[in-house]
Amino acid sequence: MPSITAEAGAGLRPRISIALAFLFLAIALLPVADLNVAGHDPWAELGRMATGLLSPDFAAIGYLSYTAALTVAFAICGVAVGAGAGFLLTPLYHILPIRLFCVAIRSIHELFWAILLMQITGLSATTGILAIAIPYAGIFAKVFSEYLDEADPRPVRSIPARTDVISAFSYARLPLVLQEFGTYTLYRLECALRSSAVLGFVGLPTLGFQLDTFFKQGMYGAVAAVLIIYYLLIATMRLWMRWPLAPLYLLASIGFLASLQTPPMAAGMLRRFLTYDIVPAPLRNGDLSQTETWQRFGEWLHMLTFDQALPGLAATMIVAQLALVLAGIVALIGFPLILPLIVGRAGAWAGHIGLVIGRSTPEYMLAYVLLQIFGPSMLPAILALGLHNGAIIAHLMGHQSRHLSKDLRPDAPKGINLYAWEVLPRIYGNFLALCFYRWEIIVRESAILGLLGVSTMGYYIGTAIQELRTDRAIFLLLVTMIVTMVIDVISKRCRTSLGLDGLSSHASTNRC
User: Which membrane topology describes this protein (predicted)?
Assistant: First the structure.
């Protein structure tokens, strides 16, 4: 059994302490979390669902194929626009206003963007493309700039001093990271397929729309068909997505989406949205020179803050913290299940399939399914977030652990002892780093799951949109954005203080 030196032990103790602090916080939040199960028998509902899922109904396979093609088209066009915009922003990312702009647009979930854009562009292809492209542009700018910062600086230093900025970037910096840019874009396309499917829950004609329709009708066999087609899209993406074919895919996607009968964007709608809809109601309808107008505005802010923003924020953080701890537990249990050294080759294949399903299923879609079983509470949201993010972390940890077999002693233990005394101590720092990286994402996803009826920020935002009170929705979105940015700052400082900044940086950005 390997011994830990005093220096290593001193570095390990803060990392264990921070993990225990998150665990105890989650335990303390359990009494105030709404974990109630609906009055019906969840196991009976699960049995009926399982029966349907085991007998998929492909009767509507023609229409499902059309919907699957739309899902892919939205994803490809969204990534193309987002990557293009992110690439243009990359050289400017070091400028503070540009960086803050990118942080702001990526802190708002694609579903929130879709709901806002529908007020301007309606239920159209433009809405779906921009809902993916806008947050992805901020993500691409961040990740591309990180790749550039970590590239070898010597080629830039060796070029003539009078070389213009564009030439220096194109010939001395870009070639060093072009392969990484392509690899990350492919990863982001996989994320976009998930985002595109989820956009169906707000009415866009993707696989999520079909899933919602079949669930409401109790057609679980058709639900199984939708899920099988969706998983096949994700699983085979590396086979059909080839870079030489990318321009053809993009042209085909544009043509496919152009065939949709969608309402045109009206300039008047955009002008009304920017100059009237998003303006707080007291300021919109009052005289700005009057004290009464600003008093009504103060009352409006007070009401939104204390009646909606703070309760929604509290529920969001409860869901996020419980889901983060659950994700950590799932990751610690799940990552050894894909290591042949611990579970054997057959066991590793089975574990790999389980993690692929877990990380490929969007949190929103998984929460929707669990909502049918357990009813409306925080439980479906916590389980969905924990299982999905735990599967992502477990996959990355397992991938990072595969090389450890070369470093093991000939007399290394086997099975659970190998996991506990050899593998986990070496990968624990990466585990914490990945958890901190996922923290911001889990908070963002916790907010959006309110659209399903959970009392997080998304619930209040969705209600405001339904009541045509866009000004309230914008205020609540700004609160969500600020909180997400604060969580990101706290996460970075925790990683720095624990010496985790250099761990898993690329791995964490290669998964959405």
Answer: Multi-pass membrane protein
